[in-house]
Amino acid sequence: MNEEITPTPKKERMISFKRDQFYTVMVIVAFSVGILTGYFIWGANPTASAAIAVPQQGQVAAVENQAPPTRYEIPTEGFFSVGPEDAEITLIEFSDFGCSFCAKWHNETYEDLMAAYPGKIRFVYRNVPFRAFPAAEAAMCASEQDAYWPYHDKLFSYEYGLSDDAYIQYAEDLNLDMDSFNTCMSEHRYQEFIQNDMDFATQLGIQSTPTFFINGLALVGAQPIGAFKQVIDLELAGGS
Q1: What's 154's domain CATH number?
Q2: HSE (side-chain half, CA atoms, 13 Å) at 140
Q3: Domain membership flag for residue 115
Q4: In the 8-state DSSP scheme, what is residue 37?
Q5: pLDDT tens per residue across span 147-183
Q6: CA 103 → CA 6, 38, 99, 110, 169, distances in Å?
Q7: Where does the sequence pass through the membrane (predicted)?
Q8: Would you call 94 helix, strand, or coil by DSSP?
């Protein structure tokens, strides 16, 4: 076959499309070095009266005339946390027990990340239960018996799935007082608390889970530990 055959217009379009994709990725990676590989922190100017345009997973942000990264003000008081309150790094996760990517991050990245920075990270969990609102309620009900984090871990194990029967089984496995737990669930005691949390996230502009804020810097998606370390190391070195 003659190797000098000119590509057909269709092939040309495909080659051009792939080349454009490659250049786009390279520009984005270059822009992200030192802050984040593959995800973007938009330079919106947040106000109390306007929703903040948090970047979504896979979304390409314009790299020209990019404003400095915004540090979002995310309240942490009254939400469950792990780590010292005066830690140098505050890592806030907006998550959903029904989100497989959230479970993936929790099961594959969370412990290693915390172990990599002993005593330096305060991890805060906030609810955006797009898929599993009752699971968030169940975790809150377990918190009444000082079992929030063990129950949180049970939910992300998906051992019994996510259902009314599963929530009871997880509680039984943790030896919770079932009368108290079931009463809490039937009363929907934490429905308003969780809904307020969800409303805040929606107003902020969060549309997918997990979404993280590292000292106020937005990071979207179940990223590997290296993506978090890039941001954290810069913060520990004096900030970006």
Answers
A1: 3.40.30.10
A2: 25
A3: yes
A4: S
A5: 999 999 999 999 999 999 999 999 999 999 999 999 9
A6: 49, 20, 6, 10, 19
A7: 21-42
A8: strand
CA–CA gap between residue 32 and residue 165 (Å, rounded): 45
Residue 21, by phi and psi: left (phi above 0), alpha (psi -120 to 50) or beta? alpha
CB atoms within 10 A of CB 37: 15
DSSP state of 70: P
Which residue range(s) make up the domain with 209? Answer: 69-236
| Amino acid identity for residue 18 in this structure | K
Instruction: State the total domains in the chain.
Output: 1
**Is 108 part of any domain?**
yes
- For 107, the 3-state DSSP assignment is helix
What's the chain's length in residues?
240
Say if 11 falls within a structural domain: no
Tell me the two tokens of residue 24: 């786009």
The token pair at 188 is: 């929907």
pLDDT at residue 226 greater than cutoff 90: yes
What's the average model confidence in pLDDT over 5-17?
40
In a domain, 116, yes or no: yes
